[in-house]
Amino acid sequence: MTAGTGTGRLDPGSVLVVEDSPEDTEAIERALRQTHPDLRTEFVARGDGLVEALLAREELPGLILLDLNMPGVGGHALLAAIRARPELRDVTVVVFTSSTSPHEVEASYAAGADSYIYKPVNFRLFRTVLKGAVDYWRQQSGPGTGL
Amino acid sequence: MSGVNEPTAPGDRQWPARLHGLWQASQDVADVTEMSRHVYTLILTEPGVLAVTGTRWRHGELRYLRRATAGEPLTTTAGPPRATAAFPPRPAPGPDSRPVVHLHDLGAGHGALAPEGDVLRDAGARWALEARFGLGDGDGDWAAICVGLAGRPEPDADLVPRLVQLSEVLVASHRRVTQSREHERRQTEDAFLAEASLQMDSSLDVQETLGRVARLAVPAVAEGCVVHLFQRSGRLTPVASAHVAAVAQPWLDGLARDDRWLAALLGRAVDQGEDVRLSGAGLDGGPFGPGAAGPGTAVRAVTVNALRARGKAIGTLTFTYQRDLEDVATPRMLRDLALRAALAIDTTTAYEQRRRHVELLQFQLLPRALPTWPGVALHSAYEVADDSLDVGGDFYDAVVDRDGRLALVIGDVCGRGAEAAAMTGLARNTLRTLLEDGTSPANALERLNATLLDQSANRFVTALVALLTPTGGAEYAVEVVTAGHPRPLVRRAGGQVEEIPGAGVFLGVVPDIGVEPARLTMSPGDTLVMFTDGLTEARSAEGTMFEELLPAAVAECAERPDPAAELIARASKFRTTGNDDTAVLVARLEGRP
């Protein structure tokens, strides 16, 4: 992930969570608050119009955490729509979903996901997994950046 | 340097309250850094204190240095600010010994109290009091807090016992945070093991199961995971892998397949029965660590555990870690996971092997090909019950007799397993031999009954024989004899479906089976459908049997390219309970009248 080649400037200290389940949204918020209190988090429950909204922004999130199973524009379609826009190519997209099906993994990678992360039921494990993914991409983006 | 232990401490009146507040804070903090902030803030309020430092040492190596002055908040420097050898060694306190306070003259040269001396001198200090204490994590793990003072403290200064008290708070806080982290980590690892077990139980497909476990482990356990299994050739081959980054997946797959260093490491885990755990210089020469190229540069540690089932190595479980070394999975968890994975693989492999044998034996009991007979298209299909690991007793056959007539047979031996398989072979071959010789269907079934009774078999058999005889025109005379078997259906060319009547009891139970042949005429376009009870007894979630839907299904399927397979597929889709083997044999008279 390199900064600043799309339309908007990349804000590596910010994470956009696309998640329709209120329970999962609460769990993600709680987990990230505990593990990365410095991270700015933003939550949206639907993917409809999201790509257009991102393109209109001055600052893009460094990372998008994407649920696959959503009403309206589903996760796969949203992922494809994000990856279809060169302006958003520097945004890291992490699919965060409750399936470990190899078919789902392959489909997400083929559509351009940077990571495919299983969403466990147990909160401690949930927090560990989320921390692992955020830490990994923070490490990739280099020291000194928020992500 | 001189020891100044346990001096008298007159103290001000506020100190006990402030110390109490600190003890309370020590119960709530999430990490030692946060606790240090509380301690340093408090100590900087002591008269004469210009600066405070904290150092953490492990086996003579400085882990970090913290510093704070009245005007500058707490900052932490990780690792030694210069070569460790530059610090004169200080005797490490025992892991559980009480804090000891030492007085240092900072004017005695730059080496005095390195590395804290420089920090304290920069803040204007001339003297330092150092409280040194073990952290209870084993020998060689200790810490020190130092305060910088402008003037030499009196031997009975309040500061000396207060440093001891603050050190005790830090030790207790460290212990609580460490225990809490260990507890948290164990709970997380146990949750992971439980999730992994669930994944392993969810499929009987080895490849898919391992793929799921590898995916679950990343990044819960590590950044990369590879599972290798021994193939029949004796070669370790990667069967599943996952990396937290999609872009690193091909790199990991390539290493798992081709890297010799990694292959040697896996061999070590297997041959020496050793849980391999490498980091730092242990990674030298391999595809991981600072000296490696590509994505491997960021890998800080690698673990390999052999997968063993019933005393035999069946593969390996490898993890690559890019996280802090202290976050590398514990040996306990890795061993537990390897054990669970090995057992799951072993069970699944054994199941697959047994199922293959059953299928092989099952199909040996069925005709390899149905005969071709002018004017009649024959179709057959067989489905083995999903969860069965035993050979079932359904059978069918088609025989052209010495007079050129076509005899169709379908039957079912009660029960499953080796005995049922033997009886199935006996029943099918007896009927085939008799029918080939031109024995009538009723006679053939009576002879089979006598044979079964002679053998004192404790299983019964149901069977049906349909004999098709050309009448010279386009029509066929059909004789149907059933012995305890579901009655067949005829779907007429016009679409109506009729059940063919019949009488006769199970074979192998009583000498007189009371068969009564049914006779009918079939014309081109008519279809005779014979089946076993696995088809009729398929039951939906609402309790409806497929038997009720069968006439309509036969009406629809009779003209399809493969009516037998179509009927079985429909029953399978319909079925939620009543899982039994199913055989279907269909004879369709070709051409239109």
From TrEMBL, chain A:
Q: Which Gene3D superfamilies match?
A: 3.40.50.2300
Q: Which residues carry this modification: 4-aspartylphosphate?
A: 67
Domain of life, per lineage: Bacteria
InterPro entries xref list? CheY-like_superfamily, Sig_transdc_resp-reg_receiver, TCS_response_regulator
Asked whether the keyword Transcription is assigned, the reply is no
Q: Which Pfam families match?
A: Response_reg
**In the record, which residues are listed under signal peptide?**
none
Q: What is this protein called?
A: Response regulator
Native organism is Streptomyces daghestanicus
TrEMBL record, chain B:
Ranges for region Disordered = 68-98
Please report a single Pfam family linked to this protein.
Answer: SpoIIE
Q: Where is the composition biased (Low complexity)?
A: 75-87
> Which keywords has UniProt assigned to this entry?
Hydrolase
Q: What are the PPM-type phosphatase domain coordinates in residue numbering? A: 378-589
Name the source's superkingdom. Answer: Bacteria
InterPro entries named among the record's database cross-references: Bact_Sigma-Reg (IPR052016), GAF-like_dom_sf (IPR029016), PPM-type-like_dom_sf (IPR036457), PPM-type_phosphatase-like_dom (IPR001932)
What's the protein name?
PPM-type phosphatase domain-containing protein
